[in-house]
């Protein structure tokens, strides 16, 4: 039988790590356990505050944050996470807290402004808060307003998440990013906004970029991305009319729901060779087939191709009037590099889908595995079963370019 360990017998670093996972109010309350615990809470490497979870008869939320920061003993503060509403925290106080955290050589800052329906208050993230050279991770979200008229200085920043933040203008975005010379990861999630025309991402050091943007306001034109070191690109959703990409070092791309205009803007790029080895395209929107052609033609080192269909296929759903423009010649990736092809939620009734699948099987000379998956067939769906059997027989009978290709059909 394993011996039970008293918390007092644990390693000090382990105790502090455990304490950093619980609310600060609980952490402070441990000071009454014993004399040894009276000041232990002052050494917790991560401070997390949420004004909505805070209730105390003895001191206000602001007083608690002040006390925690002023009592902090180690020289370096690993993380400062602040979720706050204007009803419990004044903007002047918040700025002071952040700068106090900066003085503790802060490494991670997470800010979330909690706003209730019909409120008009907003917290402004200004240039004065872009002055921490020890900061490695910055996450801004929940309706903060980024207003940066001049570039800041965050020389150590490697990870930046902008989750539903607002921006005063295009220059604020540019100035925020230009102050991060070592930035490697950028996550952008946006919704409705009227003040930005072009979202420009010109970061030479950037390696990973994820975008989810359903902003279709007339004022917003699109993205301009110039990141020669970019290796990983994920577009979950994009509905803007323009998209300009310069990323010759791209290795992996995951493209979800994009407007037909975005597909056309990518296809219009002629002089570009990508180092993409892994590619995922969602076949939800019209134009995905031209995007596929473009990616095949411009990704000579592509090794893994994944297509993802709709989660539930409406029996009456089909894209009207689309014609797949096959590559003018067999792309280099099909002749020498593509080894794995996966089509998830394949539409067994789609004639065009069958055309794309057949083309890939006929021309991928190095293909080792081709997998087609679909949802389960419910009892009584005999017609659907027959359709899938016919399509499977057709694909199985395709004269494949690769003699070693292993064809798999399965249910998800």
From TrEMBL:
Coiled coil: none
Top-rank lineage group of the source organism: Eukaryota
Residues covered by the FBD domain: 332-410
Record-linked InterPro entries: F-box-like_dom_sf (IPR036047), F-box_dom (IPR001810), FBD (IPR006566), FBL13/AtMIF1-like (IPR050232), LRR_dom_sf (IPR032675), LRR_FXL15/At3g58940/PEG3-like (IPR055411)
Protein name: FBD domain-containing protein
């Amino acid at each position: 039988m394993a011996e039970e360990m008293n918390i007092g017998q644990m390693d000090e670093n382990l105790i502090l790590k455990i304490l950093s996972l619980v609310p600060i109010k609980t952490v402070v309350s441990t000071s009454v356990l014993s004399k040894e615990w009276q000041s232990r809470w002052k050494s917790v490497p991560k401070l997390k505050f949420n004004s909505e979870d805070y209730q105390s008869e003895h001191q206000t939320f602001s007083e608690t944050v002040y006390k925690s920061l002023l009592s902090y003993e180690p020289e370096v503060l690993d993380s400062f996470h602040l979720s706050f509403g204007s009803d419990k925290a004044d903007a002047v106080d918040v700025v002071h807290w952040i700068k106090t955290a900066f003085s503790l050589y802060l490494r991670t800052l997470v800010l979330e402004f909690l706003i209730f329906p019909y409120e008009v208050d907003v917290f402004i993230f200004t240039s004065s808060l872009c002055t921490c050279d020890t900061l490695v991770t910055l996450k801004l979200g929940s309706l903060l307003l980024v207003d940066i008229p001049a570039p800041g200085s965050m020389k150590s920043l490697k990870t930046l998440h902008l989750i539903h933040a607002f921006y005063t203008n295009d220059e604020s975005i540019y100035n925020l990013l230009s102050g991060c010379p070592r930035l490697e990861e950028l996550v952008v999630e946006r919704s409705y906004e009227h003040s930005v025309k072009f979202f420009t991402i010109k970061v030479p050091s950037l390696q990973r970029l994820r975008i989810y943007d359903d902003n279709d306001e007339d004022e917003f034109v699109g993205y301009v991305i110039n990141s020669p070191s970019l290796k990983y690109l994920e577009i979950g959703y994009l509905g803007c009319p323009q998209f300009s990409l310069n990323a010759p070092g791209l290795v992996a791309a995951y493209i979800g729901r994009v407007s037909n205009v975005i597909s056309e803007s990518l296809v219009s790029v002629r002089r570009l060779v990508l180092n993409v080895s892994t590619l995922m395209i969602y076949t939800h929107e019209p134009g995905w087939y031209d995007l596929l052609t473009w990616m095949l033609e411009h990704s000579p080192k592509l090794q893994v191709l994944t297509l993802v269909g709709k989660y539930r296929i409406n029996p009456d759903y089909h894209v009207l009037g689309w014609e797949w423009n096959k590559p003018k010649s067999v792309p280099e990736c099909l002749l020498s590099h593509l080894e794995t092809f996966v089509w998830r939620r394949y539409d067994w009734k789609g004639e065009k889908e069958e055309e794309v699948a057949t083309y890939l099987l006929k021309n991928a000379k190095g293909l080792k595995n081709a997998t087609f998956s679909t949802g389960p067939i419910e009892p009584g769906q005999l017609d659907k079963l027959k359709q899938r059997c016919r399509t499977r027989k057709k694909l199985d009978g395709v004269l494949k370019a690769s003699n070693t290709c292993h064809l798999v059909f399965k249910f998800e």
